[in-house]
Write a structure and sequence with these properties.
The complex is a heterodimer of chains A (about 120) and B (about 425). By secondary structure, chain A is of the alpha/beta class. Chain A is built from 5 helices and 6 strands, in the order E-H-H-E-H-E-E-E-H-E-H. Chain A has a single domain, classed as Barwin-like endoglucanases (Beta Barrel), CATH 2.40.40.20. A 9-stranded mixed β-sheet of chain B has the order 5-4-19-18-17-6-7-15-16, covered by helices on one side. The N and C termini of chain B lie far apart (about 55 Å). Classes of the chains: A alpha/beta (about 120), B alpha/beta (about 425). The complex binds iron/sulfur cluster.
Chain lengths: ~120, ~425
């Protein structure tokens, strides 16, 4: 089972942004329950684009679908902002109200588990 | 186009802080049928999708339909019986509704925070610390010859920003991208970076030390700068500082890459100081890439009503402002609030899981046009008209310019302003009783 250790970055994407007022839709899951890594990391993970991977941090874990983005250096994985990214984001606000949403130490690994839908994800909280 | 169809021009887009004001919307008299000139984000928002049809109240674990009167009464009871109510959101609605919200929170002695606290709140803190450089986007369009996106990716988050205001825009003294240099600083090569004349890749969490190194070079002390800082060689840093000094009019558009990473508001303090110091050599400015279309408006209204721009606590009978204590994430983390009013926002999606946990244990009131993950926790749901599409009002662009967003179609839903007007009256009635 392949795994990589990366800094996790979350942020806006066009697909996530255009479905954010429609978060109970399948389109939102397709847009936000994803993890982008570069081709080399995809090889290390031993998975193909569209397979599921598990993202684990000190704060939690989330299963998302892997996509290729060669703009990411080897040290970075990107998950669009949303409940899947937030399942692995710490809540400490550094005394200023802002959690660290970008630059979280994470382990990404291949998995047989499936991606949770929005309702299941909320139910798991 | 049929005879009843109407084209509305110069529509202001209520999605992102760019507030593009040149859209064309076609209606068939009852609904919107076409949106022209908007990007994918703006178009999807204006076209809309399935709504929460009626107010809802949770009973025996299930949401059931209710009337507006019943839902507003229930929400008002919850809020007036709470010891420590918290409210959050308010960025995707208009200033008139925000003003009512401030009065409501003052009346119930609650804590009021906006989405800024997990967005550009750190920028606001830095501005309070070291001041605000700034200009309008019109100045950028007309004059800028060096455009820098630092930790921001407008191709995805503000798709028309470059064409309307910054890189490609043709202005009085600039013919467009031929007259400008585009630099992008980011930890990964984004779509915006793909278009840049120069992309500089930096190491995650190293923005603060890069700004410090640039300031050191700028002050003539490059001998103490190490050979590499945050993934950038010293030679490159010297070249970048030199390029910035030579700009006729330079602008840094700062993004969440600065606010949501290590050092948070300190990154902004440092880059604002850098901009300040470069002004000894060149005209330079900084504009935060505000996300939600009226998050800047929340800051304005909250500041003129309370003296502070977000995270205000009315529980003492006077306004208390202490981000880190009075910010929504922190109030939830401490499990301190005993009710939660969410307005035009989705904390269940946008807050870390650990902060969302407390939402299970307290009554949650949601005022929003759409069902979203926060609805899963809501005990009272009040569907509202979409501000800027179905209700008019004032919004502030990312550069602080107020624009009037419009009502494009008539709908059965009340506006946020009407909902909070009624809630405020009800709360006063209940408290008086
Ligand atoms: S760039 Fe922003 S304001 Fe302009 S159309 Fe797109 S979403 Fe709307």
């Amino acid at each position: 089972m392949g795994k990589i250790n990366v800094k996790l970055i979350s942020g806006r994407t066009l697909d996530q942004g255009s479905t954010l007022e429609n978060k109970m839709s399948k389109e939102f899951v397709d847009a936000a329950a994803i993890c982008e890594v570069n081709q080399k990391n995809l090889g290390t993970l031993g998975v193909s684009e569209g397979d599921n991977v598990e993202v684990k941090t000190d704060f939690g874990e989330a299963v998302v679908c892997v996509r290729v983005n060669n703009g990411n250096p080897d040290s970075i994985a990107f998950v669009p902002m949303g409940p899947w990214a937030n399942a692995v984001t710490g809540s400490d606000s550094g005394g200023v109200g802002m959690p660290i949403y970008k630059g979280i130490d994470s382990e990404v690994s291949s998995t047989d588990k499936s991606v949770l839908g929005v309702k299941e994800l909320m139910g798991a909280i | 186009m049929s005879a009843e169809n109407r084209i509305i021009t110069d529509v202001v887009c209520p999605f992102c802080g760019s507030l593009c004001d040149d859209l064309e919307v076609e209606t068939d008299g009852t609904k919107i049928v076409k949106v022209k000139k908007a990007c994918k984000l703006g178009k999807s928002k204006i076209m809309g999708h399935e709504r929460i049809e009626s107010p809802l109240i949770r009973e025996d674990g299930k949401l059931r339909e209710a009337t507006y009167e019943e839902a507003i009464e229930r929400a008002s009871q919850i809020l007036s019986n709470s010891k420590r109510p918290l409210s959050y959101g308010w960025a995707s609605t208009v200033c008139e509704a925000i003003e009512k919200g401030v009065h409501l929170l003052e009346e119930i002695g609650g804590v009021m925070d906006s989405t800024a606290s997990v967005c550009h709140g750190p920028t606001v803190l830095a501005v309070q610390g070291v001041g605000a450089p700034g200009c309008t986007l019109g100045e950028v369009k007309n004059r800028a010859d060096l455009v820098i996106f630092w930790g921001s990716n407008p191709v995805h988050a503000h798709p028309r920003h470059q064409a309307r205001y910054s890189y490609n825009a043709k202005g009085f003294f600039s013919g467009g991208k031929e007259d400008r240099t585009l630099m992008v600083f980011d930890v990964r090569k984004t779509k915006t970076a793909d278009k840049a004349d120069e992309y500089v890749q930096i190491e995650p969490g190293s923005d603060y030390k890069i700004f410090s190194a640039m300031r050191t070079i700028l002050s003539g002390n490059e001998d103490v700068v190490p050979s590499e800082v945050g993934g950038i060689s010293k030679e490159k840093l010297i070249e970048i500082v030199d390029r910035m000094k030579k700009a006729k009019f330079g602008v840094i558009f700062g993004g969440l890459g600065l606010t949501q990473s290590r050092c948070r508001y300190k990154n902004l303090e440092n880059v604002i100081s850098l901009v300040d110091e470069i002004n000894e050599h060149a005209k330079f400015t900084l504009i935060p890439m505000r996300g939600h279309y009226n998050i800047a408006g929340f800051g304005q209204v909250c500041a003129w009503e309370t003296g502070y721009p977000f995270a205000v606590d009315f529980s003492r009978g006077y306004v208390w402002y202490n981000p880190g204590e009075t910010t929504a994430v922190d109030v939830l983390n401490r499990k301190e609030c005993d009710s939660f009013l969410v307005v035009a926002a989705d904390p269940a999606s946008n807050f870390p899981k650990g902060s969302v946990e407390h939402m299970k244990d307290i009554p949650v009131i949601q005022v929003d046009p759409y069902h979203n993950p926060t609805t899963e926790f809501a005990d009272v749901v009040i569907p509202a008209a979409v501000a800027g599409v179905e209700a008019e009002g004032t919004a502030y662009r990312m550069d602080g310019i107020p624009l009037r967003v419009r009502k494009l179609v008539d709908v059965k839903y009340p506006s946020d302003e009407e909902i909070f007007d009624k809630m405020l009256t009800k709360v006063k009635e209940l408290k008086g009783a």
